[in-house]
UniProtKB/TrEMBL annotation:
The gene is LOC105128657. This is Spermidine synthase 1-like. It holds the Pfam family Spermine_synth. The keyword Transferase applies. The active site is at D218 (proton acceptor). Keywords: Polyamine biosynthesis, Transferase. Signal peptide: none annotated. InterPro entries: PABS, PABS_CS, SAM-dependent_MTases_sf, Spermi_synthase, Spermidine_synt_N, Spermidine_synt_N_sf. One of its GO terms (cellular component) is cytosol.
Amino acid sequence: MDRENNGFAYTESYDTLHVRGLKEDRKAASHDAKSTILSSLAAARQMENHELHGETSLAIPGWYVDVSPGYPGVASLYKIEKIMFHGKSECSQDLLVFESSARGKVVILNGSLQLAEMDEFAYQEMITHLPLCSIPNPKKVLLIGGGDGGILKEVSRHACVEQIDICEIDKMVVDVYRQHFPDIAVGYEDPRVTLHLGDGVKFLKHVPQGAYDAIILDAFQMMGPEAEELADDCFMESVARALRPGGVMSCPADSLWHQEFSLADFVAKCGKTFKGSVSYAWCTVPSYTSGMMGFMLCSTEGPPVDFKNPINPLNLEHYGVAKGPPKFYNSEVHTAAFCLPSFAKKKMFESKMKKKYAALQK
């Protein structure tokens, strides 16, 4: 991070796109609407030029530029009101927290948008309650990642849960969320929670077989080799091994709008690993690039799990350590989350037909 004249400059690198940005300008507050519009138009022209000339640097004073490698040619702009934290941890993770003008506090981890205060609850609630409401009386839950504490907060709503383990690789992440997002990090106040600081891959190697009823993976949003290691087949096999028969796993999955995302392949891969039920769900999260987030729900071989029909509904009067009822999740939303749009159904059907045809040719 470069600091100049008490301002702020922030640089992130991507495979083919280098975004240089963000100088908090004290004069920005005095800009009128016309100058803001002109600045935005100028920024748009700069971005167009940047796309045409890959080495061009893009700098927009007072704004954070969020560029997702999965959506080339697309960027989101966040007007910065105040930089609240920026630092690099002992795990070499770069964490940025700023107050935005439209979506509350925003968290960027290693150049990837992790959370915006305006809509974080949609993701946190869905990735938690979709699996936990699909099996009867889950007692032992493991969370890999999720250092912000939001998923812990949602798990706390389930009175039947007796043990909540979280493995988070970076203590700085935990500390920053506790300081700047106390209403989210309140999940750590649940006495059932045990925090394990360390690598999730190594942690699972020491977990006894069938130890958990549910495992929630919140680590795929981060970028870099750690995320790749978590996403490989060996890791997923260790997740399946740590689940009891009929246990469930949930993790983030790509948006259906991601052109390179093959839902059929992902479902087949998960089915081969977990050997039980596999379903894809989704919800809207405006702060993410495509405006939606996908979830993969898997169960291990054993008692069948029908993810689409919750059998363990939330008691909306039991808040756990949360300050109030869920803002997004309910049983109707649960069922609706598994409905696929027609284009996704078509791709799934075509993929199945291709595989059947290929099998017949052998």
